[in-house]
Amino acid sequence: MKVYWTPWCEYQKGDLRTPECMILFEEPTPVYKELSPSRDMGSDNYFKCPAFIDLCKNTYVVKAPFDLDVHYNQLNETLHISQAQDIYDLYCTNRPKGPNARKIITLPPRYLFYSDDDIMMESLPCFLQNSKIKWDLIPGKYNIGKWIRPIDFTIELHDEHHTLHFKKNDPLFYIRFTTKNDEKIELERVEFTKQLYDLGDACTAVKKRQGDTPLKTLYESAESFLKAFRKKEKKSQNNT
């Protein structure tokens, strides 16, 4: 079963912003392949355990696209990063909720995954990795055949006094795909077009506009919209 993916950028007046992220936001890596080289396969028998192998099936790791230092200023509830302002503007979100609440922030990278099939995608913390981190991933799960929107890296800080340091290729989070018949998925990169941007932006905007709408309702609302998108996409492929 195919899962289409692309890095997510923003468009402004028809032009792609931060086009370098089309290169920097690399393809997610199968988690079993990522973990195996760092383990002694002879002694770490759980790597041969069918239950562990099944857990890793259709699971990929998303890595840091570049070095990034992140500091949250608790006094004025501001977020500072070591990258340029355009990266902050397009990929970072600061969600202060007062002095007694844990701070939630969104950082790069951002991706878009979708499929023509009924596939659930969930974001998960990195198990067997990231043992000394000072944040928790905010997980999520939705059907990428019925709802097409970007997935980002959103975390809850343990302690706002610490500066976070991310190095390029550090594991950030896992994405796991669940299919109806436990079929293996195949990632296929697609071009990030203005049409895809408008599609993902529309789904994100609906969620913001309607608040806590159940996913089932969102799936039903978007059905005809996604059908039109697929029809146009198929026609475009046939003309190439």
How would you portray this structure in words?
By secondary structure, the chain is an alpha+beta fold. It has six helices and 16 strands. Strands 1, 8, 9, 11, 13 and 16 form a six-stranded mixed sheet that branches. The protein has a five-stranded antiparallel sheet with strand order 4-5-15-10-12. A three-stranded antiparallel sheet has the order 7-6-14, with no helix packed on it. Helix 5 packs antiparallel against helix 6. The radius of gyration is 19 Å and the shape is globular. The two termini are 23 Å apart.
Topology:
Layout: E1 2-7, E2 11-12, E3 15-16, H1 21-24, E4 29-30, H2 31-35, H3 50-56, E5 59-63, E6 68-73, E7 78-81, H4 85-91, E8 93-95, E9 104-114, E10 119-124, E11 135-137, E12 140-143, E13 150-157, E14 163-166, E15 171-179, E16 186-189, H5 194-210, H6 215-238
Parallel strand pairs: 1-16
Antiparallel strand pairs: 1-9, 2-3, 4-5, 5-15, 6-7, 6-14, 8-9, 9-13, 10-12, 10-15, 11-13
Helix pairs in contact: 5-6
Q: State the low-pLDDT regions, or none.
A: none
> Which outline best applies?
globular
Rg from alpha-carbon coordinates: 19 Å
Structural class by secondary-structure content = alpha+beta
Q: What is the number of helices?
A: 6
Structure summary:
By secondary structure, the protein is of the alpha+beta class. It has helices at residues 21-24, 31-35, 50-56, 85-91, 194-210, 215-238, and strands at residues 2-7, 11-12, 15-16, 29-30, 59-63, 68-73, 78-81, 93-95, 104-114, 119-124, 135-137, 140-143, 150-157, 163-166, 171-179, 186-189.
